[in-house]
């Protein structure tokens, strides 16, 4: 997964992460999203983010580095 994301980001391709099925996210998941946000040429788009995940992104201040779509 990370290799594919890294390759897309390296080539400046837009990156979408579909999150509808996320039921749990911990510091490892948040770190992975932070890594992706730093690597991407443009803010990655998180699609269908569950409320609990969005709240965690707000608490960590990470909600400012992503675009969101439904």
SSE topology sketch:
Elements: H1 2-10, E1 16-18, H2 27-39, E2 45-47, H3 51-60, E3 67-69
Parallel strand pairs: 1-2, 2-3
Distinctive features:
70 residues; alpha/beta
Proportion of beta-strand residues? 5-15%
Number of helices in the DSSP assignment = 3
- In sequence order, what are the helices and strands, one letter per element? HEHEHE
Q: Got a strand count?
A: 3
Radius of gyration: 11 Å
Strand order of the largest sheet: 1-2-3
Mean model confidence by pLDDT: 90
Biggest beta sheet attributes? 3 strands, parallel
Unreliable residue stretches: none
Distance between the ends: 22 Å
Overall shape: globular
- Secondary-structure-based class equals alpha/beta
Roughly what percent helix? 40-55%
Explain what you see.
The protein has 70 residues and is of the alpha/beta class. The protein has three helices and three strands. The protein has a three-stranded parallel beta sheet, with no helix packed on it. Helix 3 links the parallel strand 2 and strand 3. The chain is globular and about 30 Å long. 14% of the residues are buried.
